[in-house]
């Protein structure tokens, strides 16, 4: 019996102009693309429709429109990887707004992290995000991919200087995501999560 690929959302959390997230997320998507057990769905918070929807939430709009809402997109996925920078020892406000905009759709799903930043490599942002996702009944993965002094870790073509090390770290993260994603998908199908 063939198992359908996991639908994995790659949530790009920065909306800053000139952001480094594009380089990090392109690399990570190429790593996921090597697998046949996952299909990726990019949720880039800088997308015009999505940015507009999130802005409207501050005005208490229902977010209606032609594009699928953020809640619909999150609800249709089996797991997530959040690509986040660390800004001022934390994660971006845009990411907090997007996470809080959705509620039940996060439940009983795995969340992994790819972080980047200065000396801490985004790990302070990740530790804060773990607390947020715990409140949403999501399962965060232990192992992460982290780029310390990120702007020094990539060449001009967007490839990490340490291609073997970063590929191994991504593989560990994705293997954990595959296990949790499949296990929780089967669990939700057998018995809906009402925690």
From TrEMBL:
InterPro entries linked to this entry: FMN_Rdtase-like_dom, NAD(P)H-dep_reductase
UniProt signal peptide: none
One Pfam family matching this protein: FMN_red
Ranges of residues in domain NADPH-dependent FMN reductase-like: 7-151
Protein name, per record: NAD(P)H-dependent oxidoreductase
